[in-house]
Design goal:
The complex is a heterotrimer of chains A (502), B (100) and C (636). Chain A has 502 residues and is an all-alpha fold. Chain A is built from 23 helices and two strands. A two-stranded antiparallel ribbon of chain A has the order 1-2. In chain A, helix 4 runs antiparallel to helix 5, helix 10 packs across helix 14 and helix 15 packs antiparallel against helix 18. The radius of gyration of chain A is 22 Å and the shape is globular. With 100 residues, chain B is mainly alpha-helical. Chain B has one domain: Helix Hairpins, CATH 1.10.287.3510. Helices cover 77% and strands 0% of the residues of chain B. Chain B contains three helices and no strands. The termini of chain B are far apart. Chain C is mostly helical. Chain C has 26 helices and three strands. The longest helix of chain C has 47 residues. The chains are: A mainly alpha (502), B mainly alpha (100), C mainly alpha (636). Chains A and C meet through helix 7, helix 13, helix 15, helix 18 and helix 19 of A and strand 2, helix 6, helix 7, helix 8 and helix 25 of C.
Chain lengths: 502, 100, 636
């Protein structure tokens, strides 16, 4: 057996996190944490290299035989995209939160929790066994809870408990479905929780629908879709920008990731049955999130609401069942991670200087801190999917792919594209332009972004721009996943109406 | 040979006395003794049962109970002594901090 | 449908044409360098930026020369660059199409762009953020060239949004002014509404043809179902309306005058706002398949040409008069483009001449403002013809060109459109004719208020002529305003024939009856304007009026009010409602269920008295209960 790279990849940061819980000096702790994050990044890139070289990375060891649970890890294109996003974002988040807010827990704890969260999330994205997935899915809540409660804003306890309760409620419903899967699997021979085995079962009819709905509710809460989204704005508002980045950029992806891998992968028939509902549900989320962002008076809430809107697009693409839309959704998941990271981190920089996240507290910042303003604008442009940014490519794929199947629905969802311009530019206008206010002059004069802060933004915006102009590698990475899922569901793309045009 | 059921009746009586003692007496030491009484009532029942069925299991269990009782005495008396040291009282009603 | 099959396939680029991509890349890279280098490049940034545009212009001229001497069949050249991405059956290539249509645009953009860069060196000399201004201008040039040189709709869309971004950045260039920042946002958002049309059109093309390249769409258009042809046509029209400030998406253009004047000249007069016309002409095959969509274009264009002219008559801000005029002139172009094959060449013809004379007049207005301490109110001008001779002289050329004075540029291009309109429909023709009269009226008003009459200068204002670096571009543009019509009149139809599929028909220099009528109407407009504004004195403050026509014109036909009532207010209300629902609906439900549990546990908590004896009693009770249940179940 070859070296279990995937197990190593997930365990490395968890090990680092545990190590960081030992008493040590603050400087050493941070360097150690960053070292582990960078090592994980290196291993992650190595895994990507192996994947590209066609190596078989799958790990499959029996774990609990009575349940048919396996320690099974594997990555496909989608999984690898999520893994790469996670390993790249984590060290950047650490650098951005090098100095956690005063009066909260220490940087050492922050780094330890971030590393553990990273490891658990990596396992979530790599798990190829439903029980394993479920366990890590729930386990990610623990470090996240402490990240919010230990470092957040004034109402952090409320936000953390709210986050935990929403997530646990979803997890509990999912647990019922997981148990149900066992019953079905056991009734058709030896029980197995392997995704591949379960996918063979073709669980149709009412049972399949109920089980699928169980999974779906958990993912809807996770990926927050209206009306189960209200935990997200609070959690984002009352946590630090780094935590919010990991929460929205990485953890919430588990929702859409799960929809594709488990809802579509295990219950194709039931997923098709849910399509009309989910498509409209997604449209509601898109518009609701956009209006929520327009109505936000707090920058972190605003970014959180934009994510609700973006998740709507991802879900729309998933349930449109075309290659373009599904590939676009997966690509969107990747881009959104970087785009929200950019937004949250820049907002964090601004708030660190101003001491407030309120939009009203800013004004005219552009004049005294042009670099901060420029980066906020570029991040905002990535959120509104301007061509040249990778977000445009994914949004375009989702919209055109969905259009070929549901033109009317897509047309309604496209209102979200206009609203995106409204919320981004209004935010920019209200915070960055206009005459320099007294508060801005006090807090920002001579305090434009530091070299480190700029350097953190370089890889994030670099990825967004690079994939905007050269999206082919990412598109090729995610397309096989989309193809496999569509083949499994048994749906083919609509053919062009006019024959012989091409 | 006495009817073995009489042992069980005696055991039930002792147990009831012990239980009532725990419930009504405020003195921790007395309550503690009542607990011991209940345990020994159980022992009696076990031994009687063993005698009735002719299987040794009951007697074995009785030994276990004695061991548990001995351990309990050690811990319990230690607690009572430490409470007495801090509060100068062995009334169980004075130690009512076990609430929100 | 033989028409489409006669279009020669573009040949693959060789030689000179493989350099075409540098036209876009050089300004784009320079823009990036200037933005990233920061203050380091303050000293030479503007020169580098100007050199970049001149480079693009040189390439464009060389390519044009190459095409001019090539035989007609091999003029259209496609230069594939790289494969952008592919998904499913769709693949998206980045490639440039240098054909007869796009090269004219490329020359207009880079030519006028170069002049405006040079002009801006003087105009922005004292602005501390001049480097950034030039970076944005270069960004615009790159995006605009990408727009017109793209060989498929998706890449066109990238340029389309890119110019929107550049336009946003430049309109709100003076960000410390809240009005400028608001104007930029407004322009971007309203453009985005148009972009939806573009996105929907591309999505429909992909669904219909499986491709978004011009070749495939034009080849397949005749196979479209009528309703889809109409839909795609309307989507494209929506896109064109947003970018070209056509009714109902016109409201942003007047606010866009908040930007520095060279920006208004380049983006909001000569190039970007005409992208809608380019789009319609480029998509001619779609529109020819759908008479309904063509009709829609004609209606929108006619309404806009009258609305723009109306606005032009009542504004006092010199730039806003010119902006209204731009709307109106683009209306003419759209009208020609909507008429069909007979009009395409004229649309492009007018677009080019308009690009020259309107850029000329905007830069002239900038020169006037430069001498008047950045005052834009024409009521504070007057008698500037002597103070600013060069500006006046060049502006006068532009004026004569736009009103259609014989043998000036507008005379040829506009007359053709009016004639084509009459050939199409008498009513439309009359509207176009009236528009020409109003144009003459408001342009004469502008001339009289600015350059003639008595001095109404504000205290402390000492008008002076602008430096050479500003007047030389004016002179060049003035020359172009004079001669471009004459030069292109007989040539352009034939030149554009392969690209737009029209059939050239003879145009003569001898005025036709319609041409005579136009001249008459224009003369009437000039005379009426002179009678109103040329004789009496002009009040320094706009006189109060109850005249609904004037009021509507001053308020830009209440476009903002309509938008506020129809979109802004409802959207704000919805946003507030969403906020309230989240806070008081969903969160309230979640929180109150938590509160309910908390309340319940408060009650249950009372059972925990802390008395050991009560716990013991509870235990005993529980044991007895279980025992009783067991016994009873045994009995049962």
């Amino acid at each position: 057996m070859t070296f279990p790279w995937l197990t190593f990849l997930g365990l490395l940061p968890i090990l680092g996190g545990l190590l960081l819980l030992l008493p040590m000096g603050k400087g050493a702790a941070r360097l150690l944490g960053l070292g582990f994050a960078l090592a994980t990044l290196a291993v992650g890139l190595g895994v990507a290299g192996l994947y590209a070289a066609g190596a078989d990375l799958a790990v499959q060891v029996p774990w609990i035989r009575a349940f048919g649970a396996w320690w099974a890890l594997d990555v496909d294109g989608m999984g690898l995209a999520m893994v790469l996003m996670t390993v790249v974002l984590t060290p950047l988040v650490m650098l951005a939160e090098w100095q956690p807010p005063a009066g909260r827990w220490s940087a050492q704890v922050f780094f330890a929790l971030v590393l553990m969260l990273q490891g658990l999330s990596l396992f979530v994205f790599m798990a190829n066994d439903v029980v394993l997935f479920y366990l890590f899915f729930e386990a990610t809540l623990i470090p996240t809870y402490f990240l919010i409660v230990g470092f957040g804003g004034p109402r952090r306890r409320y936000a953390a408990v709210k986050f935990l309760l929403f997530s646990l409620a979803g997890g509990l419903i999912m647990l019922a479905s997981v148990v149900g899967l066992f019953a079905i699997s056991a009734s058709q021979g030896a029980p197995s929780y392997l995704v591949a085995d379960l996918a063979q079962l073709s669980i149709d009819g009412h049972v399949g629908r109920w089980l699928m709905v169980g999974f779906l509710i958990a993912f809807i809460i996770k990926a927050p879709m209206v009306p189960l989204h209200t935990w997200l704005p609070d959690a984002a508002e009352h946590s630090t920008p780094g935590t919010a980045t990991l929460l929205v950029g990485v953890l919430d992806k588990i929702g859409t990731f799960g929809m594709i891998k488990f809802c579509l992968g295990l219950f194709p028939e039931a997923s098709l049955w849910a399509t009309p509902f989910m498509v409209w549900f997604a449209v509601v989320s898109i518009l609701w999130g956009a209006f929520g962002a327009i109505g936000s008076r707090n920058l972190m809430r605003l970014v959180a609401y934009t994510s609700v809107s973006h998740f709507g697009f991802m879900v729309l693409g998933i349930y449109a069942f075309t290659q373009a839309s599904l590939s676009g959704s997966i690509f969107y998941m990747l881009n959104h991670g970087f785009s929200t990271a950019a937004m949250f981190l820049v907002v964090g920089y601004l708030a660190k200087r101003r001491g407030s996240y309120d939009i009203e507290a800013f004004g005219g910042v552009q004049k005294v801190a042009p670099v901060a303003a420029g980066l906020l604008l570029v991040s905002g442009l990535s959120a509104l999917s301007l061509p040249g940014m990778s977000t445009f490519v994914s949004e375009f794929m989702v919209i055109t792919g969905t259009w070929s199947r549901y033109p009317v629905v897509t047309a309604v969802s496209m209102i979200g594209v206009v609203l995106a311009a409204v919320y981004v530019l209004r935010m920019y206008q209200r915070t960055m332009t206009g005459p320099v206010t007294d508060a801005t002059a006090t807090h920002f004069t001579g305090r434009d972004l530091t070299g480190l802060e700029r350097a953190i933004m370089v890889p994030i915006l670099g990825v967004l721009l690079f994939l905007g102009f050269v999206p082919a590698p990412a598109a090729q990475l995610v397309e096989p996943t989309a193809q496999a899922i569509l083949a499994h569901v048994g749906v083919t793309d609509p053919a062009p109406v006019v024959k012989g045009a091409k | 040979m006495m009817n073995p059921e009489n042992y069980l009746i005696l055991s039930a009586l002792l147990f009831a006395i012990g239980a009532v003692g725990v419930l009504v007496r405020r003195n921790a030491l007395v309550a503690f003794m009542c607990v011991e009484l209940m345990l020994n009532a159980c022992n009696l029942a076990f031994v009687a049962g063993s005698h009735i069925t002719g299987v040794l299991d009951g007697q074995v269990v009785a030994f276990f109970v004695m061991v548990v009782a001995a351990a309990e005495v050690v811990v319990g008396l230690a607690i009572i002594v430490s409470i007495y040291k801090t509060r100068r009282s062995t009334s169980v009603d004075d130690a009512n901090l076990l609430k929100l | 449908m033989i028409l489409f099959e006669t279009i020669a396939e573009p040949v693959v680029a060789t030689g000179m044409f493989t350099w075409a991509w540098t036209m876009i890349a050089v300004p784009a890279v320079v823009a990036g360098v200037l933005l990233l280098a920061g203050k380091l490049s303050d000293a030479w940034g503007h020169l580098l930026a100007t050199a970049a545009v001149l480079w693009s212009f040189a390439i464009a001229v060389c390519l044009f020369g190459h095409q001019l001497f090539a035989d007609a069949g091999s003029r259209a050249v496609v230069a594939p660059l790289y494969s952008w991405f592919s998904v499913g059956e769709w693949s998206f290539e980045v490639g440039l199409l240098v054909d007869q249509l796009s090269i004219l645009f490329a020359m207009l953009i880079t030519g006028v762009g170069s002049l405006i860069h040079i002009y801006s060196i003087g105009y922005m000399a004292h602005d501390e953020r001049r480097r950034r201004f030039f970076a944005y201008l270069n960004l615009f040039i790159a995006a605009m060239l990408l727009l017109v040189l793209a060989n498929n709709y998706l890449v066109l869309f990238v340029g389309w949004e890119g110019v929107g971004l550049a336009s946003f950045l430049l309109i709100s260039f003076w960000q410390h002014k809240p009005s400028a920042a608001a104007a930029g946002t407004k322009a971007f958002v309203m453009n985005r509404v148009g972009d939806l049309g573009m996105l929907a059109a591309i999505a429909s093309m992909l669904a219909m043809f499986g491709s978004s390249s011009f070749t495939d769409v034009n080849a397949g258009a005749h196979g479209l179902a009528p309703q889809w042809a109409t839909m795609i046509g309307l989507f494209l029209l929506l896109a064109a309306c947003g970018k070209s400030a056509q009714v109902p998406l016109q409201a942003w253009l007047l606010d866009a005058m908040e930007g520095p004047t060279p920006v208004s000249a380049l983006i909001h007069a000569a190039t970007m706002v005409t992208a809608g016309v380019y789009l319609v002409v480029r998509s001619h095959a779609v529109f020819e398949t759908s008479p309904a969509a063509q009709l829609a274009v004609v209606v929108v264009a006619t309404v806009t040409l009258l609305a723009g002219a109306w606005i032009g008559t009542s504004q006092d801000d010199i730039k806003k008069v010119l902006a209204g005029s731009t709307m109106s002139q683009i209306g003419y172009m759209m009208l020609a483009a909507g008429i069909g094959p007979a009009g395409y060449a004229f649309a492009i013809f007018h677009l080019l001449t308009h690009g020259f004379f309107k850029a000329n007049m905007f830069l002239g207005a900038g020169s006037v403002m430069h001498g008047m301490n950045d005052d834009v109110n024409m009521r504070h001008y007057g008698a500037l013809s002597t103070a600013m001779k060069w500006t006046f002289g060049t502006f006068a050329m532009g004026y004569l060109a736009i009103i259609g004075f014989p043998l000036f540029a507008g005379y040829f291009s506009k007359d053709h459109i009016i004639e084509a309109a009459f050939a199409q429909n008498t009513f439309i023709g009359i509207c176009a004719l009236i528009g020409a009269g109003i144009t003459a009226f408001y342009m004469t008003r502008l001339m009289l208020m600015t350059f003639f009459g008595e001095k109404r200068w504000q205290p402390g204002v000492h008008p002076h002529e602008s430096p050479r670096v500003m007047t030389i571009p004016l002179v060049i543009l003035a020359v172009a305003s004079v001669v471009s019509g004459l030069v292109m009149n007989n040539w352009i139809q034939e030149w554009l024939e392969p690209a737009v599929g029209n059939h050239a028909h003879e145009v003569s220099l001898v005025p036709t009856p319609v041409g005579m009528a136009t001249m008459g109407i224009v003369a009437a407009g000039v005379v009426i304007s002179y009678l109103v504004f040329g004789r009496g004195s002009i009040p320094v403050k706009a006189p109060a009026t109850n005249n609904p026509i004037t009021l509507a014109g001053r308020n830009v036909l209440f476009g903002d009010q309509v938008n506020d009532a129809l979109f802004v207010t409802p959207a704000t209300a919805v946003a507030a409602a969403v906020d309230a629902t989240d806070a008081r609906g969903i969160d309230k439900a979640a929180d109150s269920s938590a509160d309910a549990f908390a309340g319940l546990s408060t009650q249950v908590r009372r059972l925990e008295t802390g008395y050991v004896r009560s716990y013991a009693l509870t235990m005993l009770g529980g044991v007895l209960f279980v025992g009783v249940v067991l016994i009873l179940s045994q009995l049962g």
